[in-house]
Prior knowledge:
Blueprint: H1 2-30, H2 33-38, H3 44-60, H4 66-89, E1 104-105, E2 108-109
Antiparallel strand pairs: 1-2
Helix pairs in contact: 1-3, 1-4, 3-4
Amino acid sequence: MLMLGFTGFMGILKIVLMALAAFALVDAAVRREDAFRAADKQNKVFWLIILGLALVVSILFSILSILPIAGAVASIVYIVDVRPALKHLTGGKGFGRRRGSSSDGPYGPYNGGR
């Protein structure tokens, strides 16, 4: 019974790692190439290769081996370090973002006290 629970937990962990790598790969694919250079990070092709390998490794290998752990580290580095730098340079544009003026405050547009 204990082993069944352990394998269930490991299966869920494997799915989470695959989703993490897939999210990072898709996010890197939709970002502009020049944003990577402007953020002083590795180029887009480098991140696509690393994150693609992380996804393939997380699918093919057991979670207890070292390769999926290395892929998870690469995905986390992209999400925590590279993605915020790219979002900062590109203005945070993405799906579901509010489009407004640069003078918009938290409660609507700022009209200069009029």
